[in-house]
């Protein structure tokens, strides 16, 4: 029953991570490409025309964190890509136990990161910190990072109970 509930919850969580990561990646590539072209126009017009997106470097740096956490959570679905010489030679049961132990470590790491990001969100909210260029409240960014780490923990917990030790690249 618990595993069924975990599977039912983790599916939409994975989809949300994939969607969030994809949207952020699309926007990040757009910002970088647009600013490269805008910089060419800026230089060609001797600084008369400035079409560059304000705070582009800041946007891209925070988006990269969102994308990395979203991709990590979404990548667990088919098992993480692994290069190992010992585990692949084990029988099925020990291989599954090693995989489940690995995912238990990912759950622990994700929960610790979620807790640390949540603490940062609370601290930056209390201090009223904002990003340098765009004045985005920092607690929103750290809060989103904390939610993404919780999503990673949920997905990894599902793998703790269901992983069979076969990696996607070995199938």
UniProtKB/TrEMBL annotation:
The complex comprises the extracytoplasmic solute receptor protein and the two transmembrane proteins. InterPro entries: DctQ (IPR055348). Part of the tripartite ATP-independent periplasmic (TRAP) transport system. Belongs to the TRAP transporter small permease family. The keyword Flavoprotein does not apply. It is a multi-pass membrane protein. This is TRAP transporter small permease protein. It is found in: Cell inner membrane; Cell membrane. The keyword Phosphoprotein does not apply. The chain crosses the membrane at residues 16-42, 99-118, 138-157. GO terms for molecular function: transmembrane transporter activity.
